TrEMBL record:
Segments forming domain ABC transporter: 337-572
Bilayer-crossing regions: 21-40, 60-79, 127-155, 161-179, 249-269, 281-301
Subcellular location: Cell membrane
Source organism per UniProt: Paenibacillus auburnensis
MF annotations from Gene Ontology: ATP binding; hydrolase activity
Protein name according to UniProt: Multidrug resistance ABC transporter ATP-binding/permease protein YheI
Main location: membrane
Keyword set, alphabetical order: ATP-binding, Hydrolase, Membrane, Nucleotide-binding, Transmembrane, Transmembrane helix
E.C. number(s) listed in UniProt: 3.6.3.-
The ABC transmembrane type-1 domain, residue ranges: 21-304
Keyword rRNA-binding part of the UniProt annotation: no
Length: 580
C-alpha cells in the first residue's frame, strides 16, 4: 500500500526540509491539542471539590485561549508546507510527463491514445499530488497523532479505560486491508475508462464536420452515452467500496464510546478516576475519531495514488525507439545527403515499406520524389528525420551516419511541412513565428510572400492576428498549407522537406511558390514529394517510387526520354491542364 511513498522517495529527498518542518509542526500541534482537554478536566475537578476561584478560572480560560492561538499559527505553517508540496509535485510530474512526451517517437503515439495520455496528465497526476499532500496528513494523523492521543488517555487518565475503549480498533484494520485492495483494482479500471472517454471526445470534436456530413450525430451521441455509462459504472464500483469506509469507522467509534461511557461511569463510582478525568477522556476519545477516519482516508488515498503512479510510470518509463547517441559526432553543416541500399519497415508493417533505396545529394540541390499513392514517398522523406529505428543500409549526412548525429542537431537543420498540416489554436502570426521566435513583421511578410499567401491575408478578419482555431479549422486546406510553408520558410532551414505540401493549391499558386523556393533557397537543399510533376521539373534529381522501390531516376528531361511511368503521368497531367 505504501509503495507509492517509496516510489516518490526522490521527491521527498528533494523537499526534505519542507516535509521535515511540516511533519514536525504537525506532530507538535497534535501534542498541544492534548492540553486543553486536560485543563478543562482539572477545572471540572476543582468545581466538583468546590475549590475553584475566579483567578484560577481565568487562568484556565487564558491558557486554553493561548493554546488555541498557538495551534492556529502552527497549523497555518504546516498546512502551507504539506499542501504546498502537493502543488509542487503536481507541477514537477506534469512537466516531466510533458517533456517525456516530447522525446517520444511516432510509434509511441501509434500505440497510445491521446485521450488516455490526457487522463494520465490530469487525473492521475492530481491523485499522486493528493498523496504527497493530504496523504501525508492522514499518514501522520492515523499513526503518530493516534498514538499520542492513546498515550495521553492511558497516562493522563486510565490505562484500563483506554484498553477497553480501543478494543474495536482491530476491526478497522481488518476492514481497511480488504477495502484497500478492492479500491486499487477498481480505481485502475475507472481511470482506463476515463481515458477512453477523453479519446472519444477528442475524436468527436475534431471530426464533427464529417459526423454532420454523414448525419451520424445520433449514432455518435449513442456511442458517447455508452462510454459515459461505462465510466459511471466503474466509478460507482469505486464509490461502493469507498462508501464502506465511513460506516465501518463510525460503527467502531460508536462501540468505543459505549465502552468508554459504561466502563468510565463504573470507574468514577469506584473512585478510580474523577469526573474531570472522565470528561477529559471523552474529549480525547472524540479526538481519535478523526485519526480513525484518517486510517480509511489513508488507505483510499494511497491506493488511488499508487494506481495512478503506476499508470504515469508506465508512460514515463517507456523509452523512445530512437535515442540520442552517447557520443555524437560533431557536424557543422549538412553538406551532403546519401542513402545507400536503405530498406525500411514500419514497426506495425508486415512488408518492407522501402527496399534498396539509394541516392545522393549535394548541398544546394533539389530532390523530387514522385510515384503513385502508397509508393513510399513520405516514408522516404521521413528517413531524414530519424523518427524510427534505422533499417538496413546507410543514411549519411556530411558522410556521417545519421544515427551518430545528435537528434537536436539533426532536427535543427530540418524544415518539415507534412501532408497533414498542424496549426495551433493561435493567430496566424504566432503560427508562423513558431519557426522563428520573435520574428519581426517584416520577416513574417517575407515568408508569407514566399508562400504566396499575401493575397489571402487581406481576406482574413484580423490579418496576421486572425485566430485560426483548433488545427486551423477556420482556414481552407490551401491556406493551411501556405501558413505551414511560411512557417518553414521563416525558419530558413538547411534542409527543407515538403511532403506533398502543395496538393491543396492551384497550379498557378504552386508555380509561384516553386519559383520562390528556387530563388530564396539557392545554395540550400530541398526535398519535395508530390503528385503534380510540375512541382519537381526543376529538381536536380527526381526518383520515381513504386512499392518502396526506385523504378526510375534522373532529371525531368531524362525521365521523359525513358518513356516510362514518369512520361505517362506527365502526358496525362498536361492533357488535364489543357482541358482546364
Amino acid at each position: 500500500m505504501f509503495s507509492v511513498l517509496r516510489d516518490l522517495g526522490w521527491f521527498f529527498r528533494r523537499e526534505k526540509r519542507r516535509y521535515s518542518v511540516g511533519l514536525i509542526l504537525l506532530i507538535v500541534v497534535g501534542v498541544l491539542e492534548l492540553l486543553p482537554p486536560r485543563l478543562l478536566g482539572n477545572a471540572i475537578d476543582e468545581i466538583v471539590r468546590g475549590s475553584i476561584t475566579s483567578g484560577s478560572l481565568m487562568k484556565y480560560i487564558g491558557l486554553i485561549v493561548l493554546m488555541m492561538l498557538i495551534i492556529y499559527w502552527i497549523t497555518y505553517i504546516w498546512m502551507h508546507k504539506l499542501f504546498g508540496g502537493s502543488n509542487l509535485v503536481e507541477r514537477l510530474l506534469r512537466s516531466r510527463f510533458m517533456n517525456h512526451l516530447m522525446t517520444m517517437t511516432p510509434s509511441f503515439f501509434e500505440k497510445n491514445r491521446t485521450g488516455d495520455l490526457m487522463a494520465r496528465a490530469t487525473n492521475d497526476i492530481r491523485a499522486v499530488a493528493t498523496t504527497v499532500g493530504f496523504g501525508m496528513l492522514t499518514l501522520v494523523d492515523s499513526t503518530v497523532y493516534l498514538s499520542v492521543v492513546l498515550l495521553a488517555m492511558g497516562f493522563l487518565v486510565s490505562w484500563k479505560l483506554t484498553l477497553a475503549a480501543v478494543l474495536p480498533l482491530p476491526l478497522i484494520a481488518v476492514a481497511m486491508i480488504f477495502y484497500g485492495k478492492a479500491i486499487h483494482d477498481r480505481y485502475s479500471l475507472a481511470q482506463d475508462a476515463f481515458g477512453d472517454m477523453n479519446d472519444q471526445v477528442l475524436e468527436s470534436v475534431s471530426g464533427v464536420r464529417v459526423i454532420r456530413a454523414y448525419v451520424q450525430e445520433r449514432l455518435d451521441e449513442k456511442r458517447f452515452a455508452d462510454i459515459t455509462d461505462d465510466v459511471y459504472r466503474k466509478n460507482m464500483a469505486v464509490a461502493r467500496v469507498d462508501a464502506f469506509f465511513e460506516p465501518t469507522i463510525r460503527f467502531c467509534v460508536g462501540l468505543s464510546y459505549i465502552i468508554a461511557l459504561t466502563y468510565g461511569i463504573y470507574l468514577v463510582f469506584r473512585n478510580q478516576i474523577t469526573l474531570g478525568d472522565l470528561v477529559s477522556f471523552n474529549m480525547y476519545l472524540g479526538m481519535i475519531v478523526w485519526p480513525m477516519f484518517a486510517i480509511g482516508e489513508l488507505i483510499n488515498i494511497m491506493q488511488r495514488g499508487g494506481a495512478s503512479l503506476e499508470r504515469i510510470d508506465e508512460t514515463t518509463n517507456t523509452r523512445p525507439d530512437v535515442e540520442d547517441v552517447a557520443q555524437p559526432v560533431p557536424v557543422a553543416q549538412p553538406t551532403s545527403i546519401e542513402l545507400k541500399d536503405v530498406t525500411f519497415r514500419y514497426p506495425t508493417s508486415t512488408v518492407d515499406n522501402l527496399s534498396g533505396v539509394s541516392f545522393s545529394l549535394s548541398q544546394g540541390q533539389t530532390l523530387g520524389v514522385v510515384g503513385r499513392t502508397g509508393s513510399g514517398k513520405s516514408t522516404l522523406l521521413k528517413q531524414l528525420l530519424h523518427e524510427y529505428p534505422a533499417g538496413e543500409g546507410e543514411i549519411k549526412i556530411s558522410d556521417v551516419p545519421i544515427q551518430n548525429i545528435a537528434l537536436d542537431r539533426l532536427h535543427s537543420w530540418m524544415g518539415y511541412v507534412p501532408q497533414e498540416q498542424i496549426l495551433f489554436s493561435k493567430s496566424v502570426r504566432e503560427n508562423i513565428q513558431f519557426g522563428h521566435h520573435n520574428a519581426s513583421d517584416e520577416l513574417i511578410m517575407q515568408a508569407i510572400t514566399a508562400a504566396a499567401f499575401q493575397n489571402d491575408l487581406g481576406t482574413l478578419s484580423d490579418g496576421l492576428d486572425t485566430l485560426v482555431g483548433e488545427r486551423g479549422v477556420s482556414l481552407s486546406g490551401g491556406q493551411k498549407q501556405r501558413v505551414s510553408i511560411s512557417r518553414a520558410f521563416i525558419a530558413n532551414p538547411d534542409i527543407l522537406i515538403l511532403d506533398d505540401a502543395l496538393s491543396a493549391v492551384d497550379a498557378r499558386t504552386e508555380a509561384r511558390i516553386i519559383g520562390n523556393i528556387r530563388e530564396e533557397r539557392a545554395g540550400k537543399t530541398t526535398l519535395i514529394s508530390t503528385h503534380r510533376l510540375s512541382a519537381v521539373e526543376h529538381a536536380d534529381l527526381i526518383v520515381v517510387l513504386d512499392n518502396g522501390h526506385i523504378i526510375e531516376r534522373g532529371t525531368h528531361q531524362e525521365l521523359l526520354a525513358m518513356n516510362g511511368w514518369y512520361r505517362e503521368q506527365f502526358d496525362r497531367q498536361q492533357v488535364e491542364n489543357n482541358l482546364d
